Amino acid sequence: MKKNINKKTGILLVSLFVMIAGYAWCASSDSQPSLPTLAAGLPESVDEAKKTFEQRVVDKFPLGSSELQMADELLNEGFEIKVRDDQTHIAAFEEAKAPCKQHWVISWKAVNDKIVSVNGEYSFDCP
Fold first, then answer.
1. Domain map of the chain by residue range?
2. pLDDT above 50 for 28
């Protein structure tokens, strides 16, 4: 009987340890990816954040720079990239913190791997 109690206690302790370790791991890892460099630290005012994000995009990816390098960097930062029918490329990143959502969108066109137009848009939606 004593062996049974020790065995049950051991199983209970191991289970408890696994639960605590799992909770600690979940708490330490964000469910949301970290913000991309271009999106981090924007001003609190939505109007100022829009202007700042637009300027960061234009400064980071000037006309004539490599589209492939830009796309690679945006993918590594967590943006999702799509191509529209008119060959405009769209890179989007979204952060949801209930009940609000923030959106960062970069759109561009390129010819022969050179950026010929680029635009950055930031929006904040909260019901």
1. 1-29, 46-125
2. no
